Structure formats: C-alpha cells, structure tokens
C-alpha cells in the first residue's frame, strides 16, 4: 500500500511589507513549502493567520502566549530582524519552539545611517539645501552664508554604548573622521557583543565616564529591562554640555520627555534618532517639536542590500528549523 506523502510545510509571513515592499523576491522561502505572505497583520487576526502554520515569520507583529497557543502545529518562529522582543520567547520555549533571529545583516547600513544623522547635526546639509531653495543664498550679500554652528568632527570624542558588530563598525568610521573613540559594554558575556569587544582595540569605560567625557554618544545596545530608559534625566544631566546624542538602536532606550527637555534647555546640542518609543510616533511625542532634533522613520536597516541579506538569512533559518537543526536560536530551545 502506498504511503501518502506528507503535505509541504506551511510558512506564514505576518508583516512582510517593510522587508519586501516589492523590490525583492520571496522565492528563497517559497522553495521551502507553501508560503503565505501578509503585508501587515492586525492583532485581532494573528491567531487566525498562524493557526495552521508550521513556521511563522514576523518582524514587529507581536506573538504572545495566547497567540502561540492558537498554533498547535508550530515548529519554529523566524524573526525578520535582529531584535526579538516582539515574541514571547519563554512561551515558545515552553513548547520547545525555537525562536531564531538574524544577528548580522544590517551592520554596514546602520553604521552608515549613524553618520548620516551625525553629519546632519554637524553640517546641517539638509537645512542649508532647503534654505538655498527658499532663496536665502540668492539674497545673501556675501558669496556664502550659513545658519547655526558648523562643527568639525576631527578631534572630538565619540562614545559607543554597546560594542557589538554595529557598535564596532561605528567606532571604525568615527576613527576615520579623526575622532577619539571610547566605548561602554555590558559586563556579562552576551553573544556577539562580548566576542566582538574582546577582540576590539576600542578602550572601554563605565557608562558614567563615557557620558561625562564624550562630545557624541551613540546607542547600540539591545532593549532589555535593564536598558529601558537607560538615557534619562539623571544621565542626561551628567553628559557633557552641548553633546550630541544618537540612537539607531531601540526607541525606549531613551526617556523621550527628558531628552526633549534637555534639547529645549540647550544642555544637549542636538539629537539624531532613527527610532522612537512608539512607531509610528504619536503626534504629541515631545521630540517632534524639540529643537536640534533630527528624526528619521526607522530606516537605518532598510537599504535594499541589507534587506536582501536579511531575507536570505531568514530563509536559511527557516530551512534549518525544518531540518531539525535550528540556528541563531535566542530562546534556548
């Protein structure tokens, strides 16, 4: 008697639009089974959409214990990201479901974005380009004009908070600008940060020392209960007057009202942010009206090259789960 063939694995992407708005191919995942791609999934539809899934692939769509309970056949969860706080990893682990992230796909793009933010704060390129279009240069009595301070990076001290892959890449670029670089890293031996920092020539100091000494502070640590609100009123007060703060990590690393107050008071010289605590932001977010605050809409990771690497890595993670040998597991399964 012939044995019926097993049905192909069912893969469900819950929020594919940001990774692939149409300029990439889902074919690497399509090769693995029956693929359903949802551009976005509202919370009330999560359970329904993953009910029959063998693999769920998500970026920011939340998967809590209740949602996971609605997927009895689930064999694994793949993040379309490095961060994995959108998923209840412990609830998945209780059912022996591996949760896998992509630890290294956007390093060059994010490091580049850090300096796009910094150069806008120091050279004010976008501002001056707009003023030229408004006629301010044409109306100038001189051959040149500028507004605000233009700041040279060479000789300034750059502080990296979180010395993982991205933090080290940022440190390398800062040195190329002629900046002195120091870093603060977590003391525990945690994944890539500890391994990278161990081989790094960047001197490390405690956080208080870094904040007090640096002209520029750039955040590259993950969001955990210990790092939530890491930059608050007390720590901002300890920063060097006129310092610049950059964040391409996670929005909740910063207490936003405290940062806005420091920008309004002039204690900080400016902030360059690619992430906020709520995305998209509430129109009442105080940083949207703060002076010398450059905000981009969470695009540091989003170059086509980075998204191509991300999609290839997610397909590799999915294949490893289906083969029974998951890789890049972050929940201990």
Radius of gyration: 22 Å
Largest sheet: 6 strands, parallel
Which shape, going by the Cα principal axes?
Answer: elongated
Task: Name the beta content range.
Answer: 5-15%
The CATH class label of the largest domain is Alpha Beta
Our count of helices gives 12
Please, what is the CATH homologous superfamily of the largest domain? NAD(P)-binding Rossmann-like Domain
CATH topology of the largest domain: Rossmann fold
Q: Give helix % range.
A: 25-40%
Give the topology string: H per helix, E per strand: EHEHEHEHEHHEHEHHEHEHEEH
Distance between the termini: 38 Å
Arithmetic mean of pLDDT: 94
**Low-pLDDT residue spans:** 188-197
Q: Describe the strand arrangement of the main beta sheet, using strand numbers.
A: 7-6-8-9-10-11
Structural notes for this entry:
- 32% of the residues lie in helices and 13% in strands.
- It has 333 residues and is of the alpha/beta class.
- The protein folds into two domains: 115 residues, NAD(P)-binding Rossmann-like Domain (Rossmann fold), CATH 3.40.50.720; 189 residues, 3-Layer(aba) Sandwich (Rossmann fold).
- The strands form two sheets. A six-stranded parallel beta sheet has the order 7-6-8-9-10-11, with helices on both faces. Strands 2-1-3-4-5 form a five-stranded parallel beta sheet.
- The protein is elongated.
- The relative contact order is 0.14.
- About 3% of the residues have low confidence.
């Amino acid at each position: 008697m012939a044995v019926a063939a097993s049905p192909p694995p069912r893969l469900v992407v819950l929020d594919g639009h940001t990774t692939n708005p149409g300029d990439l191919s889902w074919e690497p995942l399509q090769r693995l089974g029956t693929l359903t791609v949802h551009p976005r999934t509202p919370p009330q539809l999560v359970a329904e959409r993953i009910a029959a899934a063998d693999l769920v692939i998500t970026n920011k769509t939340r998967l809590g214990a209740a949602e996971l309970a609605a997927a009895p056949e689930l064999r694994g969860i793949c993040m379309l990201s490095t961060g994995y706080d959108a998923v209840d990893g412990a609830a998945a682990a209780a059912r022996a479901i591996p949760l896998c992230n992509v630890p290294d796909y956007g390093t060059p793009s994010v490091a580049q974005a850090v300096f796009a933010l910094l150069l806008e704060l120091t050279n004010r390129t976008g501002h001056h380009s707009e003023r030229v279009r408004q006629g301010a240069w044409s109306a100038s009595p001189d051959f040149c004009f500028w507004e605000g301070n233009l700041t040279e990076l060479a000789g300034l001290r750059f502080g990296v908070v979180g010395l993982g892959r991205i933090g080290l890449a940022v440190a390398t670029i800062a040195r190329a600008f002629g900046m002195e670089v120091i870093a603060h890293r977590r003391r525990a031996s945690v994944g890539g940060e500890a391994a990278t920092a161990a081989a790094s020539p960047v001197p490390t100091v405690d956080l208080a020392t870094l904040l007090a000494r640096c002209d520029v502070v750039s955040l590259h640590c993950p969001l955990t209960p210990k790092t939530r609100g890491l930059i608050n009123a007390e720590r901002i007060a300890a920063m060097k007057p006129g310092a610049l703060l950059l964040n391409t990590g996670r929005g909740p690393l910063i207490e936003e009202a405290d940062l806005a107050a420091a920008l309004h008071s002039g204690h900080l010289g400016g902030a360059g942010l690619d992430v906020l605590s709520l995305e998209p932001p509430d129109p009442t977010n105080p940083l949207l009206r703060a002076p010398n605050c450059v905000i981009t809409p969470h695009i540091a990771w989003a170059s086509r090259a980075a998204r191509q690497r991300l999609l290839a890595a997610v397909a590799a993670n999915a294949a490893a789960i289906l083969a029974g040998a998951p890789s890049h597991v972050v929940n201990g399964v």
